[in-house]
């Protein structure tokens, strides 16, 4: 690494920490100020911050690998998450969530189910989910950041005492980076997180533009078009993925056949099926929900979520596509010569390109951008997780009456504890990483059914929510146990078959058991109190089966039935196309397929115009 690259990274780190500490005074006014910025931050800053938090390093490295191998179709792989949940949040969920006027996702649950035993059971399971997820993700970031920095930086930073290695280079780099990020996050809360993430987002956008610009400077259109197969640029797909690599690159076809996405039509169909339920369930109680709750009004929450979609995908995929082009030029021939390749080879394309094929200066900015991606995502989790510890556990069950200063100090302690636990787990990642992934995956598996029903069905109660989530957790646990013994089962047996089914195809089983637990828990226990249901319905005003609640409203409370389901679903469908056009547009630009780029731009323009009339004009009429 040249001196100019080191200077760029050092300036970025100092600037980030300086800004974070500078705005820290605003966070000392109370919990609302610390975790939600006093609900005073402008929606476009929160949108940039939210986009920055989603621009993570590990996800970027994975996207580089799948785009490299599969081509433009790979953007549909992101529907596993599902990436289009942001469209559902934009269209209606952000407004519903913000109208609750609470501080955390689990506190929101109390507004839906009440503060009795059933409500507290559902409240507690969400708070536990949020804390466990935050700790698990911090452990994941600890391990990932250390490995990334070790590949990139030229110095061996291992801490050695005599013949004993106290900390290896990966651990030292990870600790330094986490310490720097934790300082401004704990000190300044949401104000520091948003301020630094806006700066970090700008750096990531600049890095993407510069790397993409370098590919235009280094290679002609003719060279790029000769390099990339026509099928690589084809969005259309059939029931199966067929290999399209030829000549020296035929080994890539073997990898396509063994990655688990061969039955691509079924994979896309199941991803859309899962994505629909997961998206209506709403955002998990993490940094995304914190941004929604931090907006000034429900109208600003909708604007913020729409702006997140608008600003995130084009710059992110501009960077990803540029890295992939450099990988196809320089790394692909090396992989072809090596013979047998694996999925792990795809994961190191990003650091290999940065190390060996990016010019001086641009390398420093790119590394600063990727550091920004790590720090923004990390700080978002450090801010979100402790909110549940302090507001939903400590304040509610242990010290309900105290000064704002006391709760802010408790937030500092909680943040430090969450980071410490995450780092400890990171040190033992080799032995407990699979368990961490199991916990988060299991909780997510049980999350969908209960959180889908909470919006649309008045009779669904706190015990139904609790047992719905717990049922999904139990089924996912059994699935994990079966997967762990996959190598010991007799080929042809049911357990062997079940252990080798891709997880995405098992989603209906988890959903079915979660729904069963939710329905049994609901019908075997009394309904939620009428006053709680009326308060929730009149404030949030969702669509769905709420007729019995509407009929109990007095003349002063009465509101019209929400009839926007059809329009909201149409907007979500259009929004998925809109979002997809923003993903493929920069890819086609960088690979010089100007005809497909023009079609993508046209689709983006048309869908934007439609959403102006069907979504934006409706949002402008909101009075809250």
List the helices and strands and how they pair.
Blueprint: H1 3-22, H2 31-36, H3 43-53, H4 57-70, H5 85-98, H6 105-113, H7 117-152, E1 159-161, E2 164-167, H8 169-218, H9 221-227, H10 251-258, H11 264-281, H12 287-294, H13 298-338, H14 343-347, H15 349-357, H16 362-398, H17 404-427, H18 429-456, H19 462-484, H20 494-499, H21 507-523, H22 530-540, H23 547-552, H24 565-590, H25 594-620
Antiparallel strand pairs: 1-2
Structural commentary:
The protein is about 75% helix and about 0% strand. The N and C termini lie far apart (about 50 Å). A two-stranded antiparallel sheet has the order 1-2. With about 625 residues, the chain is an all-alpha fold.
Portion of residues within helices:
over 70%
Query: What profile does the largest beta sheet have?
Result: 2 strands, antiparallel
Quaternary organisation of the protein chains: single chain
- Which class do the helix and strand fractions yield? mainly alpha
Summarize model confidence as the mean pLDDT.
Answer: 84
Radius of gyration: 24 Å
The largest beta-sheet arranges its strands as 1-2
- Apparent shape: globular
Q: What is the N-to-C order of secondary-structure elements (H for helix, E for strand)?
A: HHHHHHHEEHHHHHHHHHHHHHHHHHH
Strand content: under 5%
How large is the count of helical segments? 25
**Spans with pLDDT under 50 lasting ≥5 residues?**
none
For the termini, the CA-CA separation is 52 Å
């Amino acid at each position: 690494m040249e001196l100019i690259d080191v200077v760029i990274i050092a300036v970025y780190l100092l600037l980030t920490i300086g800004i974070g500490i500078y705005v820290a005074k605003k966070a000392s006014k109370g919990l609302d100020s610390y975790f939600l910025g006093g609900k005073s931050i402008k929606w476009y800053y929160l949108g940039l911050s939210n986009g920055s938090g989603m621009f993570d390093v590990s996800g970027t490295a994975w996207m580089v690998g799948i785009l490299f191998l599969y081509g433009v179709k790979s953007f549909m792989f992101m529907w596993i998450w599902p990436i289009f949940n942001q469209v559902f949040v934009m269209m209606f969920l952000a407004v519903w969530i913000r109208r609750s006027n609470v501080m955390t996702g689990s506190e929101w649950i109390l507004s839906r189910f009440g503060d009795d035993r059933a409500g507290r059971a559902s409240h507690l399971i969400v708070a536990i989910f949020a804390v466990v997820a935050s700790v698990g993700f911090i452990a994941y970031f600890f391990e990932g950041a250390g490995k990334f920095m070790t590949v990139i930086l030229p110095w061996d930073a291992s801490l050695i005492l005599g013949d004993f290695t106290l900390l290896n280079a990966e651990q030292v780099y990870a600790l330094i980076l986490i310490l720097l990020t934790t300082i401004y996050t704990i000190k300044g809360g949401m104000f520091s997180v948003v301020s630094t993430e806006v700066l970090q987002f700008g750096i990531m956008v600049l890095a993407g533009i510069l790397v993409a610009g370098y590919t235009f400077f280094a290679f002609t259109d003719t060279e790029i078009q000769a390099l990339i197969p026509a099928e690589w640029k084809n969005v259309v797909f059939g029931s199966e993925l067929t290999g399209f690599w030829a000549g020296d690159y035929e080994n890539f076809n073997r990898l396509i056949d063994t990655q688990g996405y061969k039955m691509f039509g079924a994979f896309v169909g199941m991803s859309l099926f899962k994505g629909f339920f997961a998206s209506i369930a709403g955002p998990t109680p993490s940094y995304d929900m914190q941004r929604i709750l931090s907006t000034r009004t429900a109208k600003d929450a909708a604007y913020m979520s729409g702006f997140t979609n608008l600003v995130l995908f084009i710059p992110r995929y501009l960077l990803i596509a540029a890295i992939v082009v450099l990988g196809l030029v320089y790394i692909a021939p090396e992989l072809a010569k090596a013979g047998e390749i694996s999925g792990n080879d795809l994961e190191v394309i990003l650091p290999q390109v940065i190390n060996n094929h990016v010019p001086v200066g641009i390398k420093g900015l790119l590394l600063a951008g990727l550091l920004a991606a790590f720090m923004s995502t990390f700080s978002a989790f450090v801010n979100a997780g402790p909110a549940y510890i302090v507001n939903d556990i400590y304040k509610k069950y242990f010290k309900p009456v105290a000064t704002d200063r006391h709760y802010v100090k408790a937030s500092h302690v909680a943040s430090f504890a969450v980071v410490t636990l995450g780092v400890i787990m990171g040190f033992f990642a080799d032995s407990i990483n699979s368990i961490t992934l199991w916990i988060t995956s299991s909780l997510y598996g049980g999350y969908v059914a209960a959180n889908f029903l909470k919006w649309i069905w008045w009779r669904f109660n706190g015990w139904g929510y609790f047992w719905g989530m717990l049922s999904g957790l139990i089924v996912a646990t059994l699935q994990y146990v079966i997967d762990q013994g996959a190598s010991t089962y007799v080929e042809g047996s049911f357990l062997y078959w079940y252990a080798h089914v891709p997880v995405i195809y098992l989603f209906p089983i988890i959903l079915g058991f979660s729904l069963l637990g939710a329905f049994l828990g609901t019908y075997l226990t009394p309904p939620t109190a009428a006053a709680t249901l009326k308060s929730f319905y009149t404030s949030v005003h969702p669509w769905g089966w709420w007729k019995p609640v509407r009929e109990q409203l007095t003349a002063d409370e009465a509101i019209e039935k929400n009839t926007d389901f059809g329009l909201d679903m149409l907007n979500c469908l259009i929004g998925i196309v809109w979002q997809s056009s923003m993903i493929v547009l920069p890819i086609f630009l960088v690979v010089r397929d100007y005809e497909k780029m023009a079609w993508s731009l046209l689709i983006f323009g048309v869908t934007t115009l439609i959403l102006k009339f069907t979504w934006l004009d409706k949002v402008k009429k909101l009075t809250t």
